[in-house]
Structure formats: C-alpha cells, structure tokens
Amino acid sequence: MSGEASKRSGEIGEELAQKLLNLIGWGQSLSAIKIPCAFQEKHETTSHGDDKLFIYNNPFIEGTTDVVHVSVKHKTDGYKKTAQGIRNELKNHLTELNNIVKCAGFSPDVARVIASHHGKPRKIHRGLLVWLHSDGNSLERDIRQDIGDIQLSKEHSTPIFLIDSGRASFIYHAIRHYQSKQSEEYTFYYPRLGNAMSADNERSGKYLPLELIASDVIPIRGCVDNKPVLHLYIREKFSTSALKKAYALARDFGDAWVTDIHIGFEDYNETTHRQFRDEALLAFENIGNVVVFSYKANLLNFLEG
Q: Could you tell me which residues are beta bridge partners of residue 133?
C-alpha cells in the first residue's frame, strides 16, 4: 500500500471508529495524549503517537475505575483470508497496544487525566482494539473462530478487548435500530453479575462498558408510552432455544422492575418464526408483554408487534 493510500486508510478508520465510539457513549469523553516511548530500545520507537483514553467507573466491579487505552486499526481490503494471516496481524496489533499501555504508565499527562477523573480507589488499565475494514462484501465476517488461542509473550500483561468489523456491525445495527424506533431518552442497562456489583452501583448509564462491548447481548433500558421496557439485542440466529435463553436472561436482568421485554435477533422473521416464538414462551409463566423482532430492517418488520 502506498504512503498516500495508507494515510487515507488510517483516516477512514479513525472516522469509522469515532462514530462507533460516539454510538456507545464514549466519543465526547475521549482524551488524546501523545505518549513518548519509555522503552525505546525494546519497542524500537521514540513515540507511540496519540493514546486515546476513556475513563469510567466500572459498574460491574466494586470500587474500580477502568482506564481504557483505545487503538484504531483499519484495512480497506478486508481481513486476511486465512486464520493464520488474521492471527499474525492481530498479534502485531495487540503487541503494539500492550506497549502503548506500558509506556502510558510513565506519562505525566496520562497521570493528570486520570487524577482529574473522580474515580474509585482501584484503577485498572485495559486496552480496546478497534480493528475495522471497509470491504463491503465481508463487513460482517465473524473472525472469532479464526482467532483461536493466540500465543502471546509473558510481557503481554494488559487485558485487551477487541471490536472487529463483525462486532462493530452488531453494535451499529442494534443501537441504530433502537434509536430509529424510540424517540425518548434511553440508557444502557448494567445487569447485576454475581456478587461483584454493589447494590449502590448505578444500574444503567450512557456508556457501554467493556464487558458489554465484548458480550453478544446489548441490554437497553427505555420507555414506551411512559412504561419501562427492557430491550435485549442478541448476536445470534433466531431459534427456539436462543429465545428461551434470551428471555430467561431478560427476566434475570429485569429484577422485577419491568414486565415489557423486547428481544431482537438479526434474522427474526415473523412469518416463519411466529410459531416457534410462541412455543418457546410457553415454557414460562407470567411472561408479561414480550415482543420479538428483527433489528435488521426489511419489509417484514411491518408484521411485528
């Protein structure tokens, strides 16, 4: 790739990532800080460029603030065709981000940004790799099965989360669908996970935490006709078992504050799936008002409740 083409690809990646981060509530609070390299001989560079920081109090871990270092990578021609090719590229990106986080620990500018945030006593540095491409024929390719177990060196001490184009597409379709259907304010819902979450923790907010970014379920708390509604967007094909699992999850998430539950699948089809939907919900008592829908728009959406 020529220098000009590489520069343009980087600009496209930054634009796509910024709009995606805006969608999940991260965009307005990102800080861009230049990070000098603290290990120049080992990292073979003098600077790591801009480190994007997003800092938030983790709603799932008591007394913890997440300091997230965001790295953006973009390809114009899609991911490699082979699993090994994908793993090799991903390993390089993970190594680079791990190095950025290590050097950021020596930056007084990063320390000042963290200190200015009214955080919790415990700070955890984590990474978010936004690795996108703009090949229209494979935008939603799921590379999870290609990644497998990547062997990293012992120096990789930073927990890193990945948004690839497949996950980015899921997030985009889910949130944009909700925004197109509901005009009222909404928040992302933070379900209680085991005993790690205090009763005092906020149960919803304007940003999507890393744990939910990595999840195949996006829970959104909103209102319809002034009644609370829990929307679950599922990254899974519709099936009777998938709906049973999703509805049980929604009941558990809801903690009795909601009786209206809307569950979205990418491929739900009211004309062919209605009977299977009804069969799945028969397994539950007192189900309240349940709506199953597709979050990818087509003509058949007119038939949904």
A: 75
Specify the residue for token string 């990106």: 93
**Coil, strand or helix at 1:** coil
Three-state SS for 217-281 is EEEEEEEECCEEEEEEEECCCCCHHHHHHHHHHHHHHHCCCCCEEEEEECCCCHHHHHHHHHHHH
Token digits of residue 240: 């009777």
Spell out the alpha helix ranges (H) of the chain: 3-23, 40-43, 83-104, 108-116, 144-147, 165-181, 210-213, 240-254, 270-281
Q: Which residues contact 65 (CB under 8 A, 6 or more apart)?
A: 55, 56, 57, 58, 117, 119, 120, 122, 123, 124
Of the candidates 103, 211, 83, 98, the one whose C-alpha atom is nearest the C-alpha of residue 152 is 98
Length of the chain: 305
Predicted pLDDT at 199: 57
Do 57 and 125 contact (CB within 8 A), yes or no? no
Contact 63, 122 (CB under 8 A): yes
How far, rounded to the nearest angstrom, does the alpha carbon of residue 237 sit from its chain's CA centroid?
19
Q: Which residues of the chain have pLDDT under 70?
A: 1-3, 151-154, 194-201, 256, 297-305
Q: Is 57 helix (H, G, I), strand (E, B) or coil?
A: strand
Tokens 């990789």 sit on residue:
156
Q: Name which of 202, 143, 198, 204 is nearest 170 in CA terms.
A: 143
Helix (H, G, I), strand (E, B) or coil at 11: helix
| Tokens standing for residue 199 | 């009763």
